[in-house]
Amino acid sequence: MGAPWWKSAVFYLIYTRSFLDTDGNGIGDLEGIRRQLDYLSWLGVDALWLCPFYPSPMADFGYDVSDYTDVDPTYGTLDDFDRLLADAHQRGIRVLIDWVPNHTSDRHPWFVESRSSRDNPKRDWYVWRDRPNNWKAAFGGDAWTFDETTGQWYLHLFLPGQPDLDWRNPEVADALHETLRFWLDRGVDGFRIDVVQGLTKDPDLPDDPPGLVLPHCAVNDCVDTHDVLRGIRRVSDGFGGERALVGEVYLLSTRQVARYLAGGDQLHLAFDFTLLYAPWDAAAWRRRLQRSAEELDAVDGWPTWNLSNLDNPRHRTRCGSEARARAAAVLLLTVRGTPFLYYGEELGLEDSVVPSDRVLDPGGRDACRAPFPWDATAGHGWPVDDPWLPWPPGAGTRNAACEGDDPTSMLHLYRRLIAARRASIALRGGTQRILETAEGVLGFLREAGEDRRMVLANFTSVPAGAEVDGDWMVDLASDTSAEGRPFDGCLGPDAALLLRPA
Ligand code: GLC
Q1: HEC states along 257-325?
Q2: DSSP assignment, residue 140?
Q3: Residue 247 contacts by C-beta under 8 Å, 6 or more apart in sequence?
């Protein structure tokens, strides 16, 4: 049996609101994604993760679900979804959808019932208490809101409009499992599961240590969640072993995250955010790669990397230069593990500048969610010139059409990296050995049988040297220089190279 597809796939995260609008409301939609499937095929990605498109009051832009089994009219219809899925599959692209099981919207009929009276049959679908504890919510404020009608407090690890479900209640588990079956029946290839670490809480709801600066959701790590995950996995495996569960386990140590992969009966993949939060520093990257390998090997887990996502400043912005962002892309697509790209990072998009009167997100994340610029026209390929959020900087040239015409662009770099990965079993699934290199340089060797690749990255802004064993050719360079030539031991400033044996 070969390795499962999700180990060698390149995933692409689409922020549904911002990919492409087709109905003229200034907000991206499912049909917009369908129309760009040829672009995604051309880029070479294997699978998509679509941000929530369910009916929602949009307090948290779709992470507040009011119906798990439908499409919000902003984004289209279930028919649009079916068409998108069918057309993606026709191109060999798999589709994972975002599933938000930790909380619903406060407008979800379940919560409307739950809050209606203390003896409502759905009262204990959510977490109600006479007194709150000291937990803080993710976007500030307390994690409890007092409900006048019934005189109790309800728990919300996020906004008051996102009450937490109580997964200890078997009826909740059954109802949520049904929503999985709904989409699995339609043919989705799996789910990205939101806030996995939140699903169960310590039943005593003990106070967090005084002085904790993190919101409670970043430290909630209750052992009972593993059984909840096993239940979810059984549902998904019931539809064939090809379906993948990718978890957002937002706990900052890989050791904690690894426990959610252990045993082969929980998640298939779980994001490791340690590179996303790593400074541009070779030693920091090396330490994180080594630690991650140790922690994941211990549970037979497979790494999952991203540089950017919907909740954090884009890596092009964090890195501070295009050169570094390009070198980081080489690392993301050659390091051992499954890479997740964030829509637009292949264009080198920076965070957009959002004037205070256009701020929308309660979590302050608008800047990394800008609309995707498809071309150089005023509306950048959208039917409106001024979509729901401002365009990212430089969209006049940093767009898919202009970069598509320029073989040295960031877009072509990503496309060539994805192709290089597809062509090398060592890059897709091989072992990884971190090399002894000069300070400021990170190097690793990927091997599978006869197939070998070496990756070298200079994290400093001056040229650096790297002595390597054997003769190597430059297959691909983040600055496109020296490609196709023998490696001469020199690395340009903030540059990364992919080498193959000469
Ligand atoms: C996850 C999502 C984030 C959302 C939160 C609450 O962290 O990535 O965007 O706000 O969950 O659902």
Answers
A1: HHCCCHHHCCCCEECCCCCCCCCCCHHHHHHHHHHHHHHHHCCCCCCEEECCCCCCCCHHHHHCCHHHH
A2: S
A3: 192, 193, 196, 229, 260, 267, 269, 270, 271
Q: Is 193 in the pocket of ligand 1 (CB under 6 A)?
A: no
With a cut of 70, say whether residue 1 has pLDDT above it. no
* Reported pTM: 0.98
Indicate if ligand 1 lies below 6 Å from the C-beta of 54: no
Length of the chain: 502
Query: Ligand 1: does its nearest atom lie under 6 Å from the Cβ of 189?
Result: no
- The answer, yes or no, to whether residue 69 has pLDDT greater than 90, is yes
Question: H helices within 382-466, ranges in order?
Answer: 400-404, 410-422, 425-429
Return d(Cα 41, Cα 91) in angstroms, integer. Answer: 7
Q: Among candidates 180, 168, 167, 169, which has minimal Cα distance to 235?
A: 180
Closest CA to 465 of 486, 499, 493: 493
pLDDT for 241 equals 82
Q: What is the mean pLDDT of residues 262-274?
A: 97
Q: 136-141 — which CB contacts under 8 Å span 24+ positions?
A: 136/208, 136/212, 136/214, 136/215, 136/216, 137/215, 137/216, 137/217, 138/215, 138/217, 138/218, 138/363, 139/215, 139/362, 139/363, 139/364
For the segment 161-210, what is each residue's pLDDT rounded down to a tens digit?
999 999 999 999 999 999 999 999 999 999 999 999 999 999 999 999 99
Closest ligand 1 atom number to CA of residue 365: 9
Q: How far apart are CA 354 and CA 369, in angstroms?
A: 10
Q: Which amino acid is at 309?
A: N
Exposed / middle / buried, residue 72 (Cβ in 10 Å: 0-12, 13-18, 19+):
buried
Say if ligand 1 is within 6 A of residue 311 CB: yes
Say yes or no: CB of residue 63 within 6 Å of ligand 1: yes
441-485 pLDDT per residue, tens:
999 999 999 999 999 999 999 999 999 999 999 999 999 999 999
Query: How far apart are the CA of 191 and the centre of ligand 1, in A?
Result: 14
Closest atom of ligand 1 to CA, residue 63: 12
CA of 149 to the centre of ligand 1 (A): 28
pLDDT at 2 (0 to 100): 80
Partner residues linked to 270 by β-bridges: 247
Ligand 1 closest atom vs CA 363: 10
Decide if pLDDT at 283 tops 90. Answer: yes
Residue owning the nearest CA to atom 9 of ligand 1: 311
Q: Is the CB of 195 under 6 A from ligand 1?
A: yes
Q: Which of 60, 103, 139, 251 to mutate to test the pocket of ligand 1 (most atoms within 8 A of CB)?
A: 60
Positions marked active-site:
194, 248
Query: Taking the alpha carbons of 24, 363, 251, 69 in that order, is the dihedral positive or negative?
Result: negative
Atom in ligand 1 nearest the alpha carbon of residue 309: 8
Rounded to the nearest 5 degrees, what angle is found at the Cα of 364, between the Cα atoms of 372 and 129?
Answer: 125
